[in-house]
């Protein structure tokens, strides 16, 4: 098999599965903060993203008044992962998830229970409780969590079949704050789809997450707030594909000494 | 009949004297009033129809009134800045009290990256340090170390400006106004009286969704504070990654604080969280706002197309001026001038008339 054929085969045969649903794109995009819905739509198309998150807590108003924006999202023809962004209590998150299921007709929910206003750090205690309630009620929960293994274990026992640890605080663009923790998590949960969610600022951060063996990357601000969101979306898609290809390609080991690719001693013999 | 009229707009036959163009403008917000002005200034006989009891009482009522094309350039397409420059000149000439004080953009120390980002995306500003900020706004002396000053921008008080424009239209241009009190029924009137107008200019904002299916609402909430402990000469924008807020001095100790931007079309309902955010930002700008009196809170819905850019659409003898989003005062006069040229001269403006003009 020549190199080109091999590459094509790999790309086609490399979907990731979330709760039984296969997707090819490993980039998940948030839909907030774009200059306009038109630019959001273009960014999604340019990136090949198949799953987008949508927040409901604030947009729903008193009578689900966010319909026109949600309809724009539905019209994009991608899978919608409603989120509970902005929720600070278990009850709020559960209510928002129930509304999301009704509005978008999906059991999927990205579960956020925010515990701290400065870092938007998840309240992991509330998160586990809400995940248990929602899983029991038939939801398929994508929990936004930290890289804490004990919390992750509890989320899995609560019924979560996907885990989404943060790279860094939401919107900070700092990249992977704790690569060691993320690597441990990957090693600890070899069979569970892991998605780095939040804190990713640059395509290189996303590539690094993929190189750690993560299954996908979810981001929003880095694309939405870029000077050219469409171009940045494409850059992230390329970086994520590169990182994924690298993992499959089995990277070389790091060494302390230089290892010249041609034998140094023989070099003069080939000169002039 | 309609085709004859349309042809006459496209040749050189002037709409003059007994042949004055009869124009009906629907909606007396900033779009409707500036359109009425643009048509009347070219000799049209204009009637403005408004379902409310006075002009400027829709979402124009809650506008910030910042005439800040360069600040808007940070997050909007270049066309907004371009329309904004034209509109800025218009307002200076058309209504009294348009202070030319520029605008100031500030960020608390932890949000300085946002200030850098803002500066990269626009122009026509100068970086200012703490001392210069203190010179510009003495009450902010010592509170911020860095900021951006846009000296060529201006602001106005939307309610006063639209009242002044209405008066000018009545007195100088004999524009007729028919408010709800006159018993106007929007739907019947449109169908029943269309033949009496050569052109209908539909400036109904979100209410025009019956004709413009891609229009959506983006909710904005604002409040007005009263304090004698602090004075500002110009609008101040306080950057924050999630909650950017502006404070516009309205004179006599009044300050307008705005505005949220939420993807829904719910009118009038102001939430606690939004007020917390707006008040929090005002308090961060100056603690005196913590002791200020809350004079007013309000919310309305901005009409927007999917690309958040304004559009001028022509269907026969009806012109739709809509989708002004956050840029009512900044874009309306420039659109109104174009609307009049479309009707009088058969002009075409791709930058606001092409369906996908974001590429323009």
TrEMBL record, chain A:
Residues 18-263 form the Thiazole synthase ThiG domain. Coiled coil: none annotated. It is an enzyme of class 2 (transferase). It catalyses: [ThiS sulfur-carrier protein]-C-terminal-Gly-aminoethanethioate + 2-iminoacetate + 1-deoxy-D-xylulose 5-phosphate = [ThiS sulfur-carrier protein]-C-terminal Gly-Gly + 2-[(2R,5Z)-2-carboxy-4-methylthiazol-5(2H)-ylidene]ethyl phosphate + 2 H2O + H(+). Its EC number is 2.8.1.10. GO terms for cellular component: cytoplasm. Pathway: Cofactor biosynthesis; thiamine diphosphate biosynthesis. GO terms for biological process: thiamine diphosphate biosynthetic process. The keyword ATP-binding does not apply. One of its GO terms (molecular function) is thiazole synthase activity. Belongs to the ThiG family. Homotetramer. Forms heterodimers with either ThiH or ThiS. This is Thiazole synthase. It comes from Ancylobacter rudongensis.
TrEMBL record, chain B:
GO terms for biological process: thiamine biosynthetic process; thiamine diphosphate biosynthetic process. The keyword Oxidoreductase applies. Residues 23-341 form the FAD dependent oxidoreductase domain. Pathway: Cofactor biosynthesis; thiamine diphosphate biosynthesis. Keywords: Oxidoreductase, Thiamine biosynthesis. The keyword Oxidoreductase applies. One of its GO terms (molecular function) is oxidoreductase activity. GO terms for cellular component: cytoplasm. PANTHER family: GLYCINE OXIDASE, SARCOSINE DEHYDROGENASE-RELATED. This is Glycine oxidase. It comes from Ancylobacter rudongensis.
């Amino acid at each position: 098999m020549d190199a080109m054929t091999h590459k094509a085969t790999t790309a086609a045969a490399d979907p990731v599965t979330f709760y039984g649903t296969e997707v090819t794109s490993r980039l998940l995009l948030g839909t907030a903060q774009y200059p306009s819905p038109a630019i959001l739509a273009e960014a999604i198309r340019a990136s090949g993203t198949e799953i987008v998150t949508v927040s409901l807590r604030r947009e729903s108003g008193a009578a689900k008044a966010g319909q026109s924006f949600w309809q724009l999202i539905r019209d994009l023809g991608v899978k919608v992962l409603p989120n509970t962004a902005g929720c600070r209590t278990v009850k709020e998150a559960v209510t928002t998830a129930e509304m999301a299921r009704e509005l978008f007709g999906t059991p999927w929910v990205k579960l956020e229970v925010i515990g701290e206003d400065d870092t938007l750090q998840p309240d992991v205690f509330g998160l586990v409780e809400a995940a248990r309630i929602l899983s029991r009620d038939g939801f398929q929960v994508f929990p936004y969590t930290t890289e804490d293994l004990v919390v992750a274990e509890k989320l899995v026992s609560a019924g979560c079949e996907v885990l989404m640890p943060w790279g860094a605080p939401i919107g900070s663009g700092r990249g992977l704050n704790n690569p060691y923790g993320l690597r441990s998590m990957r090693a600890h949960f070899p069979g569970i789809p892991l998605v780095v969610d939040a804190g990713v600022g640059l395509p290189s951060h996303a590539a690094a997450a993929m190189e750690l063996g993560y299954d996908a990357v979810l981001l929003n601000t880095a694309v939405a707030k870029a000077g050219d969101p469409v171009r940045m979306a494409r850059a992230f898609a390329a970086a994520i594909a590169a990182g994924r290809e690298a993992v499959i390609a089995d990277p070389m080991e790091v060494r302390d000494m230089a290892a010249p690719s041609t034998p140094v001693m023989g070099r003069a013999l080939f000169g002039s | 009949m309609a085709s004859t009229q349309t042809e006459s707009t496209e040749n050189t036959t002037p709409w003059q004297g007994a042949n004055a163009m009869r124009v009906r403008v629907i909606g007396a917000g900033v779009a409707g009033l500036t359109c009425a002005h643009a048509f009347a200034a070219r000799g049209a006989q204009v009637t403005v129809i408004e379902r409310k009891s006075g002009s400027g009482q829709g979402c124009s009522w809650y506008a910030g009134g910042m005439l800040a094309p360069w600040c808007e350039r940070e997050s909007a397409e270049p066309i907004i800045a371009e329309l904004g420059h034209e509109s800025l000149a218009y307002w200076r000439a058309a209504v009294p009290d348009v202070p030319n004080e520029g605008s100031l953009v500030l960020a608390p120390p932890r949000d300085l990256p946002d200030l850098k980002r803002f500066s990269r995306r626009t122009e026509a500003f100068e970086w200012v340090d703490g001392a210069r900020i203190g010179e510009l706004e003495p009450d902010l002396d010592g509170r911020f170390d860095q900021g951006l000053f846009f000296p060529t921008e201006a602001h106005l008080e939307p309610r006063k400006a639209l009242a002044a424009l209405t008066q000018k239209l009545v007195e100088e241009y004999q524009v007729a106004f028919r408010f709800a009190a006159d018993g106007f029924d929007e739907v019947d009137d449109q169908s029943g009286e269309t033949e009496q107008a050569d052109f209908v200019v539909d400036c109904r904002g979100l209410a025009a969704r019956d004709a413009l299916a891609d229009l959506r609402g983006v909710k904005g909430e604002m409040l007005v504070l009263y304090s004698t402990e602090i004075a500002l000469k110009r609008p101040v924008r306080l950057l924050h990654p999630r909650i950017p807020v502006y404070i516009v001095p309205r004179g006599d100790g009044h300050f307008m604080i705005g505005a949220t931007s939420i993807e829904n079309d719910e009118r009038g309902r102001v939430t606690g969280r939004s007020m917390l955010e707006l008040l929090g930002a005002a308090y961060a700008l100056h603690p005196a706002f913590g002791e200020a009196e809350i004079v007013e809170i309000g919310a309305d819905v901005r009409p927007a197309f999917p690309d958040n850019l304004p559009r001028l659409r022509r269907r026969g003898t009806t012109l739709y001026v809509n989708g002004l989003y956050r840029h009512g005062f900044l874009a309306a006069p420039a659109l109104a001038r174009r609307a009049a040229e479309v009707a009088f001269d058969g002009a075409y403006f791709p930058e606001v008339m092409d369906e996908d003009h974001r590429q323009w």
